[in-house]
């Protein structure tokens, strides 16, 4: 090969290598295009309403006398008891006072969102007292022959201190609680293992408060509730030994076909026995009250005289039923209580 031809071939190879190297460098040097992520829209900060210090006070208070299967429906509405909370704030009716609270319910037909519904309205009663106002529960219903007064603890109920939200990280024994609530430790899951009569007792419970300075309704009453085990159905009636004449009373029941002629004598004997039992109970109640007064200290007497009861209904809000026309001022349906000052708030 000629020298000139060899030199030209060498130059062509060098030129080709230079071009390829240039392409390779250019290819490596070219930056990769990055995907541009769309900017996230700015979101407004979420507003979380701060819980009030006594916000769950009404929920913590056991609704005595309420049917077990109604408890869940009690909390399906956003009831507001800010009036109860405010009563414990400075300037409120209960500020600085020791109070014992229990709950109950009042079934009422009320309007809510365009329709009328029977709703269990929660009610809270506050008893201002330096000591527990009672350790008894009254059990009564139309099906029971007599009212029964038993210790609260038999129904697994007791007064326990309420701990406000801001104090729940503190040791309970170091807190000086001024608010006590009626609590029940009966577990709903265990109800299926109880006898029906025992379960029903919870539905017929009413707090019992004793006023020693005046005769109560049981002492003054001259009526007896009668449940006579007749056939084919029992006879339910009330007999007043001062106003009713037994023979005439019995004949009227036979005339109304509530009682058969063949059961007349047995029914009259049954009435007489119930009247004797009621009169004996009245005498024993008066004697017990007299003895209690004799043994009572002046401090305790003053506490009974100054005991006050306050009844709280929920405050009206757009999220709760309108109960403005169904508030009840009667206390008979709430508890056995005699000769006390009561205020509805």
TrEMBL record:
Q: Tell me yes or no: is Coiled coil among this UniProt entry's keywords.
A: yes
Q: Where is the composition biased (Basic residues)?
A: 29-38
Question: Keywords assigned by UniProt?
Answer: Coiled coil
Q: Using the UniProt annotation, give all residue ranges assigned to the region (Disordered).
A: 1-48
Single Gene Ontology BP annotation: regulation of cellular response to heat
Source species, domain of life: Eukaryota
* Residue ranges of the TM segments: none
Segments forming a coiled coil:
268-302
InterPro entries reported for this sequence = HIT4 (IPR039313)
- Name of the protein this chain belongs to: Protein HEAT INTOLERANT 4-like
């Amino acid at each position: 090969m000629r020298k000139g031809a060899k030199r030209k071939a060498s130059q062509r190879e060098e030129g080709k290598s230079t071009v390829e190297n240039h392409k390779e460098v250019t290819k490596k040097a070219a930056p990769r295009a990055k995907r541009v992520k769309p900017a996230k829209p700015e979101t407004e900060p979420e507003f979380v309403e701060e819980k009030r210090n006594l916000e769950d006070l009404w929920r913590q208070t056991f609704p005595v006398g309420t049917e077990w299967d109604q408890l869940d429906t009690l909390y399906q509405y956003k009831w507001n008891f800010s009036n109860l909370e405010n009563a414990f704030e400075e300037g409120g009716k209960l500020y600085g006072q020791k109070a014992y609270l229990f709950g109950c319910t009042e079934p009422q037909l009320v309007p809510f969102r365009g329709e009328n519904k029977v709703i269990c309205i929660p009610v809270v009663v506050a008893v201002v007292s330096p000591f527990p106002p009672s350790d008894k529960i009254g059990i009564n219903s139309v099906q029971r022959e007599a009212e029964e007064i038993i210790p609260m603890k038999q129904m697994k109920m007791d007064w326990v201190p309420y701990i406000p939200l801001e104090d729940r990280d503190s040791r309970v024994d170091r807190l000086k609680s001024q608010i006590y609530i009626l609590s029940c430790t009966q577990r709903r899951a265990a109800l299926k293992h109880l006898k029906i009569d025992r379960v029903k007792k919870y539905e017929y419970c009413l707090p019992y408060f004793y006023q020693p300075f005046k005769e109560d309704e049981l002492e003054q009453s001259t009526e007896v509730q009668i449940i006579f085990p007749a056939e084919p159905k029992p006879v339910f009636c009330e007999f007043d030994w001062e106003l009713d004449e037994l023979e005439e009373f019995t004949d009227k029941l036979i005339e109304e076909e509530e009682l058969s002629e063949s059961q007349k004598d047995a029914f009259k004997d049954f009435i007489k026995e119930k009247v004797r039992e009621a009169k004996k109970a009245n005498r024993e109640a008066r004697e017990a009250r007299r003895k209690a007064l004799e043994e009572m200290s002046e401090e305790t007497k003053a506490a009974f005289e100054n005991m006050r009861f306050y009844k709280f209904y929920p405050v009206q809000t757009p999220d709760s039923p309108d109960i403005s026309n169904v508030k009840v001022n009667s206390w008979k349906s709430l508890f056995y209580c005699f000769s006390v000052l009561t205020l509805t708030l």
